[in-house]
């Protein structure tokens, strides 16, 4: 797609209590992840807040014109902690995490045990196009992100835009900005971790395309002695 921005970045939210609960449930072989809140309300851990503040050190040296954030609490709080002073923070629900429908709060073991037919359907359709009942496919997430990028291009031509969002957002942008075909995107996703508090950036080429110049950068975390964490978002279930 044609995107009239000079620089696009994604800051993955800091570690959340949901990340910790999911890791514990997967390690224990449980069916269900013990999270009391809605996915939209899951907060950052203390470490997650430190990761967000460390990301602010990076953004102070590479300031965006605007920070557009997912409306989910973990991403919005990350944006507030990381955004340089004077840079506007704009919430947009199109940046929310992928919705999992009937698979919400289930571990990989829980999906196999409770929804084996859905697992087989996902294997037949492929990860990009599979949509769980009541949820979204990767393609659905790409569609809403495409809409957001189009609006940002029209309102901020040549601008520098940072998205405070989720692991899924990085993969969706690789598809939209770099034009990665579905098979290449799936291979990249399988072999790539997007740590909490990491920053991924793209710059526009002379031919109007985009090149990734920072891939899941965590140097700012190491520089502040802040441990990176890399638990997958719920969007990566059934991988």
From TrEMBL:
It is an enzyme of class 5 (isomerase). It comes from the Bacteria. SUPFAM superfamilies: Phosphoglycerate mutase-like. Pfam families: His_Phos_1. Keywords: Glycolysis, Isomerase. Residues 230-239 have a biased composition (Acidic residues). Residues 220-239 are annotated as: Disordered. Substrate binds at residue 74. One of its GO terms (molecular function) is phosphoglycerate mutase activity. GO terms for biological process: glycolytic process. Its EC number is 5.4.2.11. CDD domains: HP_PGM_like. InterPro entries: His_Pase_superF_clade-1, His_PPase_superfam, PG/BPGM_mutase_AS, Phosphogly_mut1. Belongs to the phosphoglycerate mutase family. BPG-dependent PGAM subfamily. This is phosphoglycerate mutase (2,3-diphosphoglycerate-dependent). It comes from Amycolatopsis iheyensis.
